[in-house]
Amino acid sequence: MFYQHNINLGTKLGIWRIEETEGFFLESVPLKKDVSHPYKRLQHLAGRHLLPTLFTDFPLSEILIADTRKPFLEDERYHFSISHCGNFAAALVSDTHRVGVDIELVTPRLYTITHKFLHEEEQAFLHEWEPMSKLHLELTTILWSAKESIYKWYGNGQLSFREDMRLSGPVSFGADNWIRLPFEFRKNGRMDMTVMARVFDPLVLAWVVT
Ligand SMILES: CC(C)(COP(=O)(O)OP(=O)(O)OC[C@H]1O[C@@H](n2cnc3c(N)ncnc32)[C@H](O)[C@@H]1OP(=O)(O)O)[C@@H](O)C(=O)NCCC(=O)NCCS
Question: Can you give the pTM of this predicted structure?
Answer without folding.
Answer: 0.96
